[in-house]
């Protein structure tokens, strides 16, 4: 069901043949079923909101030069292949770059400023913030001294209790460390993606930390800080494409609660 791999920038892209999806769905139809949460849980709407920030012209000039040449002499950074380039472009958008020795170099504060503006706008409502890189975490923590980093606390469950009790103003979490199993929906209805990645499962599961049974707010907000003209703008369409395929699989295998009563 796979076409021949297509080589690009030293890596391989594997594409499914046009009929592959139908064959796969037929093969799993008798061993898999799915349930739509809308059939068994009453949840408030989750409203996505893109916060678009413009990087300074000189930063964008260097971004485009780096994307074209895979080398930035200004920041002493090089991308050896397409996968590294993609990661570096997302770092660039977030405001810093990792160099070969593991240290990072500052590029801009645009996303940090946008996060500060959002924090001011929500007027004291606690915020759950997803970061991507260690320098994101460090820089946000330096800006917001009161922020709590979820995966660095000695007692996660006590932190969860404090969050749900409204005692934590800003909770920082890497999506991979907070994507499953945490019931933190009572602490807030506002999340913010400081940096995006193309992992659909992490994206959906992180959003579901607040958008789940037990949430009492009328609306759940999912803010995404997007650097205009950067790879940030490519991530949401990638996630949408992956979700479209996932939705077709779920719909093909979907059962309702009435099916169980039959």
Task: Provide the fold topology.
Layout: E1 6-8, E2 11-13, H1 20-28, E3 46-53, H2 57-69, E4 71-72, E5 77-78, H3 82-94, E6 96-98, E7 104-106, H4 110-121, E8 127-130, H5 134-143, E9 148-149, H6 156-164, E10 170-173, H7 175-178, E11 190-193, H8 200-207, E12 220-227, H9 232-252, H10 257-261
Q: Could you explain the architecture of this structure?
A:
- The chain has 262 residues and is of the alpha/beta class.
- Helix content is 40%, strand content 18%.
- The protein contains ten helices and twelve strands.
- It has helices spanning 20-28, 57-69, 82-94, 110-121, 134-143, 156-164, 175-178, 200-207, 232-252, 257-261, and strands spanning 6-8, 11-13, 46-53, 71-72, 77-78, 96-98, 104-106, 127-130, 148-149, 170-173, 190-193, 220-227.
- The strands form four sheets. A six-stranded parallel β-sheet has the order 3-12-11-8-10-9. It has a two-stranded antiparallel sheet with strand order 1-2.
- Strand 6 and strand 7 (104-106) form a beta hairpin.
- 30% of the residues are buried.
Count of individual helical segments: 10
Q: Could you estimate the helical fraction of the residues in percent?
A: 25-40%
Shape: globular
Structural category: alpha/beta
**How is the largest sheet built, in terms of strand order?**
3-12-11-8-10-9
**Secondary-structure element order, N to C:** EEHEHEEHEEHEHEHEHEHEHH
Distance between the termini: 36 Å
**Biggest beta sheet attributes:** 6 strands, parallel
Average pLDDT number: 85
**Total strands:** 12
- The proportion of residues in beta strands is 15-25%
Low-pLDDT segments: 1-9, 249-253
Radius of gyration: 21 Å
